[in-house]
């Protein structure tokens, strides 16, 4: 048997989501079965997988110890760089200026030299983040920016802040503004291009927009990697194209005047 007390950073989560985060060796199917058999209870009462946990709740698990191995705490972030550029900070959030070339999250090759690791180290050194006292939460980033782009990234110090920030971003209550360097002479100081994404095959992602008038800035969204790539189309709509280094697979259809991102 094992008991877990829910703290403020665990509150608001479903029972099944919390258990999957906290226990490394508890199979999902077994978890649902044991909840049905009343071997997993909340405050000594029968619970359901979708039940929302409250601060101070106690989960009792009447299961073998080999099913209840807790996920190991990792302290790799202690080796992260300390040079964190902070724009704003309070008890709930922290705004950081991410440098160009810096990763927001680990990418499979780099685990330590990332913005989120530096944020964790900063909060750990201040005593605001204590991994040994957390059941499921770690300080997290609410938004991300591509490695080659610099800008403001929002960090959440607690679960409730992260939940609120994620919802506001989803509801588009937080505006995202991008600046890009271009070259050439524009015939307009400002303009709006209205277009829509056309998704076809799995290796094809294009955008069909309004007719080309002068120089227009097109935005392509890579849905798989959640990256935004900016492309500059020449005066004739099918002329020179300035593109970000490292991106390939650009195709231009003269008939449809459509730019497609393929074979990324």
Provide a brief overview of the structure.
Helices cover 16% and strands 25% of the residues. By secondary structure, it is an alpha+beta fold.
Structural class: alpha+beta
Rg, nearest Å: 24 Å
Q: Indicate the overall shape.
A: elongated
Characterize the largest beta sheet: strand count, sense, and whether it forms a barrel.
4 strands, antiparallel
Strand order of the largest sheet: 1-4-2-3
Number of helices: 4
**N-to-C SSE series?**
EHHEEEEEHEEHEEEEEEE
Characterise this structure:
The protein is of the alpha+beta class. Helices cover 16% and strands 25% of the residues. It contains 4 helices and 15 strands. It has a 4-stranded antiparallel β-sheet. The chain has a 4-stranded antiparallel β-sheet with strand order 5-6-8-7. It has a 4-stranded antiparallel β-sheet with strand order 9-10-15-14, with no helix packed on it. Strand 5 and strand 6 form a beta hairpin. The longest helix has 12 residues, at 115-126. The radius of gyration is 24 Å and the shape is elongated. The N and C termini lie far apart (50 Å). The model is unreliable at 201-264 (pLDDT under 50).
